[in-house]
Amino acid sequence: MKQYSSIQGAHEGRRNFLKVSGGFTLYIGVSGILPGLISCEDRKTIERTLEENPLTAWVRLSPEGDLTILNPAAEMGQGSMTSLPLIFAEEMDADWSRVRVAFSPQETEIYGSPGWAPDTKLMFTVGSRTTNSYFDVMRRAGAEARYILMYTAALHWEVPLEELTTEPGYVLHPASNRQMAYGEVVDKLEIPESIPANLELKSPEFYRLIGRDLQRKEIPEKVDGSAVFAIDVHLPDMVYGVLERGNLHGSAPTLKNETDIAAMDGVLKVVHLDYAIGLVANTLETALEAKKRLQIDWGDAQASGFDSAAAFGDYEQIVSAPETGEVIVDTGDVNKALESANSRLQADFRNDFIYHAQLEPLNAVVRVGADGQEAEAWVGSQQGPDAKLGLPELLGIAPEKVRINLQYLGGGFGRRSMNDFITECALLAKEVAPSPVKLLWTREDDVRYGAFRPMSLQRLRICADSRGSITGLSHCVVGDGGNLVASGIHNDHYNIPNQFAEWRETRHGVRIKHWRSVGHGPNKFAIESTLDLMARELGRDPLELRRELMAESPRALATLEKAAEMADWEAPSPEGRAKGVAFVEHGSLGTGICEISLNRDSGKITVHRFWCAVDPGIAIHPDNIVAQMEGGILMGMSSVLHERISIRDGRVEQSNFNDYQLLRMEDAPEQIETAIIASEEHPEGVGETGTPLVAGAIANAFLKLTGKSLRHLPFTPERVLQVLNNNNA
Length: 729
Description:
Layout: E1 18-20, E2 23-28, H1 43-52, E3 59-61, E4 67-71, H2 80-92, E5 99-103, H3 108-111, E6 113-117, E7 120-124, H4 130-157, E8 165-167, E9 170-173, E10 178-181, H5 182-185, H6 219-224, E11 239-244, E12 253-255, H7 258-262, E13 267-272, E14 277-281, H8 284-293, E15 296-298, H9 308-320, E16 326-331, H10 334-340, E17 343-351, E18 363-368, E19 375-379, E20 383-384, H11 391-395, E21 402-406, H12 420-431, E22 437-440, H13 443-448, E23 456-464, E24 470-479, H14 483-486, E25 498-505, H15 520-538, H16 542-549, H17 554-567, E26 577-586, E27 588-598, E28 605-615, H18 622-641, E29 647-648, E30 651-652, E31 671-676, H19 693-706, E32 712-713, H20 717-724
Parallel strand pairs: 4-5, 11-22, 17-32, 19-21, 24-25, 28-31
Antiparallel strand pairs: 1-2, 2-3, 3-4, 6-7, 7-20, 8-9, 9-10, 11-14, 12-15, 13-14, 16-25, 17-23, 18-19, 18-22, 23-24, 26-27, 27-28, 29-30
């Protein structure tokens, strides 16, 4: 193999290792982050040092050659447990068959990723940023591990380090035909005083692992049931907690029968919160039974009287007001372009609140020490701005005395980046310390007191010149949450010379949170639908219109061309069917095309086939990219065709999956086909690229099939029939 590291001399080393039962274990970190390796001489020193410095490494290497690579990101089905260690193993030249993966400690200074803000690192698995933000970190860490192994071998063999290279799991000295397995290096380990800052990293042509379809590391244990999710955690002497939060967000409770509840057999504690009544009991069944018997008077809240359906009337007044909101995009002169345009149109688009619907109910286990000075939590979290999830400040405990044990997540989608369920558990655990408490949200709890993707209204105005070229686009979004409703409003890959975009704020007191792809879902739906409406107005093919707009964005254009090829865009669809196209940039670039049919009696839309082409930059794990695109498209279909939360008199009307409908297997497309257009560009996330493709593609296919425009998400059969029967739609 070609030597790809630039080795700048050998340094006088020192032997540093951890001696554990069965041999030595090598802990390797990242220069500039870790102070160095821990040096230990006996078992007591090891235990004391590990207790004082539990944060030592990205990788553990045993004398047998087995490696454990630490994953700093949440694993919620998106594949970080494989993709990040794979990047590390690539640069280390590790034998992938010998690699196992474990969660890293939740310590931002060591395991955080850069790029969130200047000089800021976070452990935060959101926004399709995991692979993107950790790519350079994991490459550097893997390269340093390889350097240390080669450095040790060079000293042992007494040869220049520059003469060494590696093959998976081995250091090689080609000149003398010698090799040393990585495991053999451990008991000879020499640590350099420093590692060159300019270690040369692998060029893509030398990749052995990146770009290959490897089995994900966590899949076998998920299949055989041995994978541990937070809900599986059971500790000795564990008790159970539940909360009654009502369904009027922010309402304060007054408990009327506390004496009776506290006297119930098995009830250990009644806990009053500003917005809920908490219960701790010796069994979950007891806690839930006590919850049913609570008699609570609920106070008013900001959300009192709010009606989500009627609110769109208020939104229309806001979007029509002359005042300008927060300006997000201002390029050229949109008003002038509209005034001088040959063709122009205006369209409003709406979307309802939607719920995250993650499979695993929200839960956590927290134990607070008897003296209140230390705590430990077992959680499935997408982490957050504080790697200790807010527990030190909440409990008044030093951060180093709080330990977070990250578990697998049974779905996140942004909901588990909000750690309210963890802080609630900690508050209950504090009341019954030192007994560990498992808190569970029932599905009804989560639906009624969820944190939803916000409702919004978008008004778009678009114009074209006499040649049929788009010259201006104005986009105003009305809703609560800033970036929650305004993200995805940019059109960086469409060459439209005059653009203006703004956000106008509303507040209703309803809990809101990031939902997969955040504002991209509603906003890309509005943008892509508007482009097809304009193409129809101009008598132009909508794909050809996008081809013109993407002329200066070759990577975006390549996804459009590939998707069109896959879908055979030019070929007519079977009778009663039509195709629609949409483009999205959300980290990765993607174009999606779907083919639908419509039952004009029932109003049901059926998606038969979906084709997508995605450019993720470097394709770390292609098979997983395909899986993520497929999952995102199916989730997009569910939200576009079915899912909605409605609020009347401030109260959530839905309660469970009986009245919050999800996509069923029988309604999944006959085929989803994904093409990856990989490059040597920095890798981007794909977890949120597929979802926002769907609404625009379905709406545009519907427009082609019927000549009518769907403008309110979700496209329920009732709304579809209303549009079909409205001659002005």
